[in-house]
Design goal:
Blueprint: H1 11-17, H2 19-25, E1 31-34, H3 35-41, E2 52-58, H4 62-71, E3 91-96, E4 99-106, E5 114-118, E6 121-125, H5 128-137, H6 160-173
Length: 175
């Protein structure tokens, strides 16, 4: 199956594509757009286009947990240990038409977030600081013999983040 180039899709496309999932999770006002999409919404110039949509659920409600426990059958994260209990899941990944939605669970409170309005509705947007802190906390797994899959930091081990930080700084903050 041929992969589609998803690098130039507007955020509305991602929100519309994953509307059924997002609607299930939007039962409370504790969700926000995160990751590179959030940086883009804040007006930063990016060295690459986002290839997914990150949704953060801050302090999930019982209704959101129930929705995720049903949606888990569509989750595509394959390297979780079979004995990992659902309450220890910190991230979910969904795929539709060669694009991705990452749902990240955070126990932190949601603070001072801006609202983004589009055809799909109104959404909170994680702060620039929040996105950078989250990306900076990701840990490299390549050389680890054991991985703590219950720890949300270990689920996203991407070497590209350091390069992204350097390029974000150079493009946006070097005058």
């Amino acid at each position: 199956m041929e992969q589609r180039d998803t690098t130039n899709y507007p955020i509305d496309f991602y929100l519309d594509t994953f509307k059924p999932i997002i609607d299930q999770l939007s039962t409370s006002k504790n969700i926000a757009i995160g990751g590179y999409q959030a940086l883009k919404l804040h007006g930063l110039i990016l060295n690459r286009e986002p290839k997914d949509l990150d949704i953060i659920i801050f302090q999930p409600t019982q209704l959101q947990i129930a929705a995720l426990s049903v949606l888990i059958c569509f989750d595509i994260i394959r390297d979780r240990p079979k004995d990992l209990k659902f309450e220890n899941f910190k991230a979910f990944k969904f795929k539709k038409n060669d694009i991705y939605l990452d749902v990240i669970i955070s126990n932190l409170p949601m603070e001072n977030l801006l609202t983004f309005s589009c055809s799909a509705g109104d959404f909170k947007v994680n702060t620039i600081q929040g996105v950078i802190e989250a990306k900076a906390s990701y840990k490299f797994r390549r050389n680890e013999e054991t991985v703590d899959y219950a720890n949300e930091i270990c689920l996203y081990a991407r070497a590209k983040d350091m390069l992204d930080f350097q390029q974000l700084k150079n493009i946006n903050f070097n005058m």
